[in-house]
Specification:
Number of strands: 9
Order of helices and strands: EEEHEHEHEEEE
Helix content: 10-25%
Shape: globular
Distance between the termini: 18 Å
Strand content: 25-35%
Length: about 160
């Protein structure tokens, strides 16, 4: 099953070991901090977050995915989760709109989870990475300006989709 690593990090700026060479913001928690002489604003963060969600929508369409199940959920901010998505729990099946909403919560580090179907999965990694894989994902992957889609052999924590981040 092909697996794609999606990030805002230019792969040409990685060193020989694959580490990213520039200091950039890596999470929602970095809003208000200085990077490369500029403060990361909420507006700038939201533009990038929306790109991830737009690309996720394209992958869902490419894989003809209508629903995914919440797996391995870990909650980091119960109040924010309750306000955004009351009743979300392990094992719940999500439609496309709810997938997008839960992905937003994962990108904002309100929670961590895997979203999985029979032949498709979305995983969220640390430092603003998203991993998408599926058997129907054949050919050139979709793109969104400002994001990089890299084909990787397996998830960075093994090819068992039941593993954690």
């Amino acid at each position: 099953m092909p697996v794609f690593r999606i990030s805002k990090y230019d792969p040409f700026l990685r060193d020989a070991d694959g580490a990213y060479a520039r200091k950039e913001w890596t999470s929602h928690g970095d809003i208000g901090k200085v990077f490369d002489g500029a403060v990361l604003s909420l507006d700038e963060y939201l533009v990038v977050e929306e790109r991830y969600l737009e690309l996720l929508d394209k992958f869902l369409g490419w894989g003809r995915v209508e629903k995914l199940k919440v797996c391995g959920m870990e909650v980091y901010d119960r109040v924010a989760l309750q306000n955004a998505r009351p009743g979300l729990s392990e094992g719940v099946w999500l439609n496309e709109a709810a997938i997008r909403e839960v992905a937003r919560l994962a990108l904002r580090e309100v929670l961590w989870c895997r979203l999985e179907g029979q032949d498709f999965h979305v995983h969220f990694g640390y430092d603003f990475y998203m991993y998408v894989g599926g058997v129907a994902l054949i050919g050139a992957p979709p793109t969104v300006t400002g994001l990089f889609v890299e084909t990787i052999g397996e998830l960075p924590y093994g090819d068992d989709v039941s593993s954690g981040p």
